[in-house]
Each structure stands twice: as C-alpha cells, then as structure tokens.
Amino acid sequence: MTEEMELDFTEDLQLSEVMRLRVQSLQQKGQKRQDGERLLLPHEAVYRLDFSEQELTFSHWNVSLKGPGRLSVTGISQLWTPDLTNLMTRQLLEPTGQFWRSAGDPEDAPIKCLEADIQEFGERIAELAKVRKVMYFLFAFKEGAEKDNITCSLVFKKSAEA
Questions:
Q1: Euclidean distance between CA atoms 43 and 16, whole angstroms
Q2: Could you tell me the end-to-end alpha-carbon distance of the chain, in angstroms, rounded to an integer?
Q3: What is the pLDDT of residues 31-42, one digit of tens each?
Q4: Phi, psi dihedral angles at 137 (to 5 degrees)
Q5: What is the CATH number of the domain that holds 138?
Q6: Which Gene3D superfamilies match (predicted)?
C-alpha cells in the first residue's frame, strides 16, 4: 500500500538575504559578477524542500496562483554553503517548472503549466531526494505574480517498506 506525502516549498529568508547582499556588495564596489555566477534578481527568492524521507516517487505538483502571473521554479543542484560559494549557472537544473494564469482566466480554471517539463522536474527532485535531506530552488515571480498569492508543494508516494 502506498502512502502519499505532501512537501511544501518554504522560503529560505536567510539565504535569499545573503544572495541579495552579494548583489548589493557588487553594485556598491562597482564590481562585476564572477564568470558563470548567477545573481539573485529582485523578483526572485530562494525556497527549500526538506525531505524527511528519501525513498519517494513523484506524484504531482500542487500550485495555486491568485490572479494573473507566472511562477518559474528552478532547481539548484548545489548543496548550499552560501558563506563559501556563490551560485553558478551550471548548478541550475533543467527543466524548470513553469506555472501561469493569464489575465481574464476564471479563478476556478486550472493553472496552466508545461506538463511534460513539470513531470520530468518532479521525477528529478524525487531522484535527488534519495541522496539529499534538503534541496534548494529559485522561485521567480513574473507578470504580476506575487509570493503572497502563491502556494506551491509537491506530492510524493512513499515507497512501502516490506
């Protein structure tokens, strides 16, 4: 018998702030980013998933978005040590999760997404959960989306242990 487990993405305020300070520091010193470095943009924040169990099978995404806008979720392959390392572009996973609601869409209409991409992305997350206790993500809020109007979680099936 398989049991489901829902994991909520939670904003990592401290890590987002460290990344914002990096951008601010570069601007104040008039310096450029390192070659290949990925800086946090103003409409982005760092989120995390904490895995209490490692043997998971991806089931589906639960995303709600009030009003029009677009949410882009990008996985980060790095085990984070923000005090020692900067985020590099090569550490961003493909595909990204894209979810959106167009202006004029009824509130009860399903959210739009690139289904093949979010399925593949969810499966990659489940694979990484086998070796990770935590995983980090960049959330980008675009086209009017605001983080207060979005909830995002993943549902996994737990592998039944005999």
A1: 11
A2: 10
A3: 999 999 999 999
A4: -140, 150
A5: 2.60.120.390
A6: Olfactory marker (2.60.120.390)
More confident residue, 128 or 81: 128
Distance CA 51, CA 49 (A): 6
Which residue segment(s) compose the domain that 109 sits in? 3-158
* Cα 79 from Cα 129, distance rounded (Å): 12
- Is residue 51 within 8 Å of 130, Cβ to Cβ? no
| H or E element, residue 48 | strand 44-50
Closest CA to 148 of 84, 66, 47: 66
- Report pLDDT digits (tens) over 121-159: 999 999 999 999 999 999 999 999 999 999 999 999 987
What's the burial of 19, exposed, middle or buried (CB within 10 Å: 0-12/13-18/19+)? Answer: buried
Per the rule left: phi > 0, alpha: psi between -120 and 50, beta: everything else, 122 is: alpha
DSSP 111-128: PEE-HHHHHHHHHHHHHH
Could you tell me if 139 and 47 are in contact, meaning their C-beta atoms sit under 8 angstroms apart? yes
